[in-house]
Amino acid sequence: MTRGLEPILADLVHPSLTLHYHTGLEHAPPSVNDHTTSILSAAHTFASLLPLLQDDAEHVQHDAYLVACFSDHPLVGMLREHTAKPVLGIFEASVMHSLALGQPFGIVTTGKYWEGALAEGVRRVFGSVPAFVGVESTGMTALELHALPAEAVAEGIAAAAGRIVAKGARTIMMGCAGMSGMEDAVRRGCGGESVQIVDAVRSGVVTLEGLVRAQRLV
């Protein structure tokens, strides 16, 4: 999944922006599907990331860190405890993006578990958000988004998008890093409604870049 993001984000790279990718090591869960795998993925990935947070000549210096799991993921807080540089999750970035668009918004995500977990995450991080209409799931895991036949995946995403539009959403967040680049499937389910689609990973990259630039102006 990490490798799959590189070509999707390539057009965002420019002479002042370099993206380095880091994925969970072999003991990390292959897919984050619930609370347990969230914690395990954070623990295993944090251990391998910790050396990269050091400000010394032996390590590549990074200006910011993006956690590319669409959830209220514990790794975000863990990294913030160990660096003063900006750390953001794609979940937070895309909710901020959707709020800025000023329309009712909802999330299309993977498994059923995330319907409740993401709704709770919005409340925990952002409080009561009247514009938030809810979450609809495809019933697939993050890995299945790339393992199942493309048409079956597109049908599942389109069906979930149709349900969230029926709830009143006019901005749809793609609620999994594995959905990045699948805007057409979301749009297929919108029934001709004028809907804005937020790619959470792209939103995270450009938001973090803006934060870094803003810091340099202070």
From TrEMBL:
Endpoints of the signal sequence: none
GO molecular-function term, one example from the UniProt record: amino-acid racemase activity
Coiled coil: none
Domain of life: Eukaryota
Matching Pfam families: Asp_Glu_race (PF01177)
PANTHER family for the chain: PROTEIN DCG1
Record-stated family: Belongs to the HyuE racemase family.
The protein, known as: Asp/Glu/hydantoin racemase
The organism of origin for this protein: Lentinus brumalis
